[in-house]
């Protein structure tokens, strides 16, 4: 009887009946899905191998949670590069203070090998937490005995002083075994400083080069001074050097401290850099230069560092002072200029440099600090390395962009080594990433070229006639203008910068 009534009702109103069947089926399907999701959430919540605590778990894009839990090949070497930078400059940064209550870095279930005093080796699964941070997100594990609280290493990781942070990213390195062209290893501190009227500037380099520490190597201080004529025209350049054998050099693999003869870089307890240098002029003139400066990096305005390592090739770079202010004296011959809080910059480079070229630039543009660059290893002639633009503002890191190319206009002509050379008069970089956009325009006011087939250029090593396709190293000073939008807000700024390329 019920079957007959249902059939006759369906035949009488077929479309209405079909719609009711469809709605009922969709309701059942949704309920099944919700029950499945709920069951999965309950199951995962009970899984001891899944990182717990807090409201949001942050992982790199593309990571498969199940691969992490089961230990598949895709998760074998899972790690987060520059994790402390992500913590300090993104997740726990002042910019997100209104939205983020607490952040807890955690490492769960990592495979380690434990060797006992008798030589036996055991595989263990280990986890790492910052106790106070883990407690803040409500993920404190059960404590069977003893105490579980932050130690000095935990405090240094989450709340480093300026000096501690700079020591961690700005220390010296030893060349890895197996590097090709080991003789071309070089590592250096680089500073630049520009006078308040922008008419005078200097590049200051403290360099170690060669087979450090047990081969043929040495150190050199290189200082170039530049002064633009009041009436315009090319700036007058003077170059000063001081070379020191290994016996007169001390360096540290735990701090930026470096001494090359009587010249030195010293990290002060408050995070400032004291630099002192003396050098003799190259060429016929026998002038002298003396530098005595304190360089004060702007807090939060730093690039944490990156390294390219491909077995026989290594190149590393960090910027402890993307924005900095310098105070002290710069003396050329008998004339000394006092600098008081003028624009400065500091970076640190290391690696093997035979056949390596780069694009690089940094500038202050209004309230923004700008850094761009890329490194071209010697085996990349057929490809172009990725280019990046890194922005900071008064709250630290703001955004990163990846322009596809720098569009140069080589309309400026200078002389280098007795020949005319076309070098950039301007350049443009653009990028759009989702709703964010950036345009950087560079106007070159002065440029100098160095033939890298000579000895020791300012920011690399030039022995053995490096056989570059473009052997001239171009250093430029000028203006940088940026415009665009980040996070829905317009950005703009203009200021002085320094740029480098090859021709």
Structure description:
With 503 residues, the protein is an alpha+beta fold. It has 4 domains: 2-45; 65-159, no CATH class; 164-352, AttH-like fold (Beta Barrel), CATH 2.40.370; 355-503, AttH-like fold (Beta Barrel), CATH 2.40.370. It is 16% helix and 46% strand. It has a 9-stranded antiparallel beta sheet, with no helix packed on it. An 8-stranded antiparallel barrel has the order 3-4-5-6-10-11-13-14. A hairpin with a 6-residue loop joins strand 7 (249-251) and strand 8.
Shape: globular
- What is the rounded Rg? 29 Å
CATH architecture of the largest domain: Beta Barrel
Q: What do the pLDDT scores average to?
A: 86
What is the fold's blueprint, element by element?
Layout: H1 2-12, H2 14-45, H3 65-70, H4 83-91, E1 106-115, E2 121-129, H5 131-136, H6 152-158, H7 162-169, E3 185-194, E4 200-210, E5 217-227, E6 236-244, E7 249-251, E8 258-260, E9 263-267, E10 273-281, E11 288-297, E12 303-309, E13 314-332, E14 335-352, E15 357-365, E16 368-376, E17 388-393, E18 396-401, E19 407-409, E20 412-416, E21 419-423, E22 426-433, E23 436-451, E24 472-486, E25 489-502
Antiparallel strand pairs: 1-2, 3-4, 3-14, 4-5, 5-6, 6-10, 7-8, 8-9, 9-10, 10-11, 11-13, 12-13, 13-14, 15-16, 15-25, 16-17, 17-18, 19-22, 20-21, 22-23, 23-24, 24-25
């Amino acid at each position: 009887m019920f079957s007959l009534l249902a059939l006759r009702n369906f035949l009488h109103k077929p479309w209405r009946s079909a719609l009711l069947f469809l709605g009922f089926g969709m309701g059942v399907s949704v309920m099944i899905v919700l029950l499945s999701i709920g069951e999965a959430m309950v199951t995962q919540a009970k899984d001891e191998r899944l990182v717990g605590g807090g409201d949001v778990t942050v992982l790199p894009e593309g990571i498969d949670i199940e691969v992490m839990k089961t230990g598949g090949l895709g998760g074998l070497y899972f790690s987060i590069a520059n994790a402390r930078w992500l913590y300090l400059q993104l997740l726990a940064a002042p910019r997100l203070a209104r939205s983020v209550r607490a952040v807890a870095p955690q490492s769960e279930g990592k495979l380690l090998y434990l060797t006992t005093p008798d030589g036996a080796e055991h595989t263990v699964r280990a986890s790492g937490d910052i106790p106070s941070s883990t407690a803040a997100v409500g993920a404190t594990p059960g404590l069977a005995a003893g105490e579980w609280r932050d130690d000095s290493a935990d405090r240094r990781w989450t709340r480093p002083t300026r000096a501690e942070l700079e020591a961690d990213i700005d220390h010296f390195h030893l060349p890895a075994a197996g590097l090709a062209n080991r003789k071309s290893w070089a590592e250096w501190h680089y500073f630049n400083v520009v006078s308040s009227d922008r008419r005078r500037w200097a590049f200051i380099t403290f360099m170690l080069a060669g087979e450090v520490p047990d081969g043929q190597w040495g150190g050199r201080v290189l200082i170039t001074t530049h002064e633009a004529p009041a009436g315009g025209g090319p700036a007058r350049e003077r170059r000063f050097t001081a070379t020191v054998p290994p016996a007169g050099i001390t360096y540290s693999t735990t701090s930026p401290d470096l001494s090359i003869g009587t010249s030195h870089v010293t990290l002060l307890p408050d995070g400032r850099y004291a630099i002192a240098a003396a050098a003799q002029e190259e060429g016929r003139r026998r002038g002298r230069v003396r530098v005595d400066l304190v360089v004060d990096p702007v807090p939060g305005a730093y690039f944490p560092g990156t390294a390219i390592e491909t077995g026989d090739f290594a190149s590393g770079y960090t910027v402890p002072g993307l924005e900095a202010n310098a105070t002290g004296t710069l003396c050329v011959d008998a004339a000394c200029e006092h600098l008081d809080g003028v624009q400065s910059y500091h970076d640190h480079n290391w690696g093997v440099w035979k056949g390596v070229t780069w694009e690089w630039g940094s500038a202050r543009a209004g309230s923004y600090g700008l850094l761009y660059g890329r490194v071209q290893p010697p085996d990349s002639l057929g490809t172009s390395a990725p280019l990046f633009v890194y922005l900071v503002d008064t709250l630290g890191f703001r955004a990163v962009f990846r322009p596809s190319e720098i569009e140069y206009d080589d309309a400026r002509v200078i002389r280098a080594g007795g020949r005319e050379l076309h070098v950039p008069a301007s350049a443009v970089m653009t990028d759009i990433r989702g709703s964010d956009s950036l345009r950087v325009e560079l106007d070159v006011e002065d440029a100098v070229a160095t033939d890298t087939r000579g000895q020791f250029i300012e920011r690399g090593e030039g022995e053995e006639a490096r056989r570059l396709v473009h052997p001239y190293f171009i250093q430029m000073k000028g203006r940088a203008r940026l415009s665009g939008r980040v996070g829905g807000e317009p950005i703009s700024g203009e200021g002085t910068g320094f740029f480098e390329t090859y021709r």
